[in-house]
Amino acid sequence: MTTPVEITLLTQENCAYCDHAKQVLGRVGHDFPLRVNEIDLASEEGRLLASRAGVLFAPGVLLDGDPFSFGRLSERKLRRTLGKRGAAMGLDRHQ
């Protein structure tokens, strides 16, 4: 069994890019094991995480606690990064 990648998604209300990021994560989650934790960027925890990660605006995406992106999430970049992580760990993405 493969350990899921911890995704932290920093979102805000009425954010089209946030909705897009959720859709991307849903699709990518069919091919890679993900555990998504959505946090409101306006909350104290969200502001602290954004500050530490250098997230300038929503949505912010952290992979296993490390900054990945903010703004419009690139599905291609996410899949490439997850594929490289899996290959480095010797994992098959369809396990």
Q: How would you describe this protein?
A:
- The longest helix has 14 residues, at 75-88.
- By secondary structure, the protein is an alpha+beta fold.
- The protein is built from three helices and four strands, in the order E-H-E-H-E-E-H.
- It has a four-stranded mixed β-sheet with strand order 2-1-3-4, sandwiched between helices.
- Helices cover 39% and strands 24% of the residues.
- The model has no long low-confidence stretch (mean pLDDT 91).
- 21% of the residues are buried.
- The chain has one domain: Glutaredoxin, CATH 3.40.30.
Topology:
Blueprint: E1 5-11, H1 16-28, E2 34-40, H2 44-53, E3 60-63, E4 66-70, H3 75-88
Parallel strand pairs: 1-2
Antiparallel strand pairs: 1-3, 3-4
